[in-house]
Amino acid sequence: MLHVLTPRPHHVAFAAASLPAAVWGSLHLTVQILLGLMLLDIITGLHVAVLNRRLDSRTGFDGMVRKSLILCLIGAFEIGGRVFGDAPVAPAVAAFFSMVEIVSITENCATAGLPIPPIVRDTLKRFQDTGQAPAPTSAPVPPATPEV
Prior knowledge:
This protein has one domain (27-130). It is 71% helix and 0% strand. The chain contains five helices and no strands.
């Protein structure tokens, strides 16, 4: 007698979980980090909007559109790098936008009332002013003093 395979609920669940896991595993680490930071930025942004009673669907939609455009840009660089065999630019672009997300998360936390250490504030300020991460220094970093 022929045994007919019938899909069972756990087979469907396994198949549904396998695709996202395979896609996630195929992403470069910097892109995975960027996606995690984007999620944290969304969460902290929503938190601040709720705290300040300024929850606005238009602002949220605009933010999601910007984040999707960033991912499209990274995808375009990834495709271009594979087609033309250039240096891997997509991870560098993802690393840049990861810094942008870190700045945004920090701003959201500061807006929510969390104290931000001066060294972090100064580093992020330099990043915002120049658009690039500050060069590392070999000088010892003084301990942060709590803000009064």
